[in-house]
Amino acid sequence: MTASVYRIKGLECDCPAQPAPEVDVSVVAMPPKYQEPEVPDLLGQLNKSLGTPRLSDVLYNFEELEQLAALLPTFTYFHPRGPYGPIKAFPLRLTQCLFPPPMDQDDALATSIFDLAQRQGREKVAIRRLLAGQKDYVPPDDCALALAVMSFLRRGSAWLKKHRVQTLTLILRSPEATFISLASGAWNDQASVLLDQVAVSPELAVQVWRSPVLKQLVSEDWLRRVLQGHPLHLAVALSFQKKHTVEARTLLYEAAKEYWLAAGVCLALFPFNPEAGDRWNLARNNGEALYWAGRVWKAERKKITDLPRYKEIVFQLQTEANAKWAYHWARDIDRSIAEDFARQLWPSPWAVELIEDLHLPGDFATDLATGPNGPESRFWDQYLTLWATEYASK
Length: 394
Hints:
Strand content: under 5%
Structural class: mainly alpha
Radius of gyration: 30 Å
Distance between the termini: 91 Å
Number of helices: 21
Strand order of the largest sheet: 1-2
């Protein structure tokens, strides 16, 4: 039997390898390194759910957004929306069957719908003509968004210099048009004037603070001043800097005691807080607050049916008073109940909006329009069957 050998440095001979002695060594497990408990980024969750403002918030279903985005690729305001659609003031889908509209001045909803549809229609036509390169075209005075786009396209031109004061005055009527003008750089020498009008919209004020370029035009004092009456938006804006995280959370927490929108948001951020009951009482009768509770909850990809008081929220939304927010809930948060909501809201034009935007089955729309619980005596009733027939044929 040949012994294994090993060579020892300094010796010339081969030494037989000796077996290693057995040693009883007790294994001592090292205690795990202490780790701080993970704190959820609640303000980041809120910021994610809010998203960023888009032109589609004020111009629904505008097909030329990509052309506008190509003009200012870094300007996210012209970009398509993310996972959430625009917060619509009124449903406009049904107006596709309602022109010329019936002159029913006694119906406040009808008047509002047609007014918004006509204003958006004029803006879209004006912007399309500008994008088509019609050099001599000047948008109407009531098309502030188109005038803002024109001032960017024709910046430095002799025409704009000649009509500078008049054009700027018209643009300043709209916070959204003013924001476009501010970001496009067409009115750099009027930045302070533009900022004052942009601040009318808390969402746009937060966007100014979020933008690395536009933020250079303002100060933290400006932010606090313009958002003084909007604690939810101020909390989001302050949370962009770590040094203000504690202040932002405290501001949000305190706002939930008085403001229904903040209460709704906190129902999702702090669902098991001892004060959740008081927040529910503040938010329960406000459809917008309930919508934002669901949207903030879903921002973290949580199952919406796991939201505390989910069933109560769904019940509260299925009323005529909350039709607008029932539409937004089904569109953005829980599409599984879209048909139930549309059936419950029928014959509201919000039901038509929901069916169109989510592309619900044509047979479903036809059944609603021709069913026993169909329209009775509202301004849009005579058009619902026409709309359903047209929709089902698409």
